[in-house]
Amino acid sequence: MVLGRRADDNGVMREPSELYELLTDEIEADSPVLVHSLSGFLDAGQAGRLAVEHLLATLDHRVVATFDLDDLYDYRARRPRMTFLTDHFAAVDLPTLELVEVTDAAGVPFLLLHGQEPDHAWQRLTQAVGELVERFGVRLTVGMHAIPWPVPHTRPVDVTAHATDSSLVKAHAPWVGSLEVPGHLSGMIELHLGDTGHAAMGFAAHVPHYLVSAEYPSASVTLLSHVSAAGGLTLPTDALADAADQALHEIAAQIAQNPENVAAVESLEAQYDAVASSRELEGAAATPEDSPMS
């Protein structure tokens, strides 16, 4: 995948670095991990957003770079919310995309790229992220996202792991074979980093397909646990785990009110258990074609 400068409407070549403003060139981290999570297309159960909000609420952080919203977003397609008070406009909730330095619970700094997935300039933005990876000597980039999956909420949240180097995900048996999916910026970042010799990987949490529009903090807990293990970070999850327990209790209560929903969940449980048993018996080597969940 060849990325580079792009011309604007007047034919002027635009540099990837023009997409962001670097607020500081000094960070505490030495060869840091970069975690990224972009809300939008790949954020079933709002798992990535909840994980990011939790990190920023519980860990010390500071902004390192901000990205140019006007170059990246289609405001008419996704109009920001405005607050009107009696006779005047008081505020506007603009989208954000920023790179922050976060200090984990053990005092280890890492970088976090978060915000809404942009509408425009994906190729230049992908290269801009690559520039920042090189500037700060990032040793590993890890993406967090979540996808709909035919699983019940009563079972553990699994993940699909992917990486530029298969050795990075050798502990994770694949759930799917070859398939085509709609393009997304997180995937393009991983592709570009792999093409330029940088280690990159990601985790897609499996969110029950009937809960993709609701907040599902169980998936957020799973994402942070996997990112912690992959990046050697200590990311707190206690508050999220409490929220997950409460959410599961509420989900169970709602499902119990409808016998058809109860039967549907029981069917998913049987399907999940059969696949889990097969993967365990075969050393987690069951192929996607053999899986009843494919």
Structure report:
The protein is α/β, with parallel strands linked by helices and 294 residues long. The chain is 33% helix and 24% strand. It is built from seven helices and twelve strands. It has an eight-stranded mixed β-sheet, sandwiched between helices. A two-stranded antiparallel sheet has the order 1-2. A hairpin with a 5-residue loop joins β8 and β9. α1 packs across α5, α3 crosses α4 and α5 packs antiparallel against α6. The C terminus is likely disordered.
Question: Which features would summarize this protein structure in a list?
Answer:
294 residues; alpha/beta; 8-stranded mixed sheet; two-stranded antiparallel ribbon; 7 helices; 33% helix; 24% strand; disordered C terminus
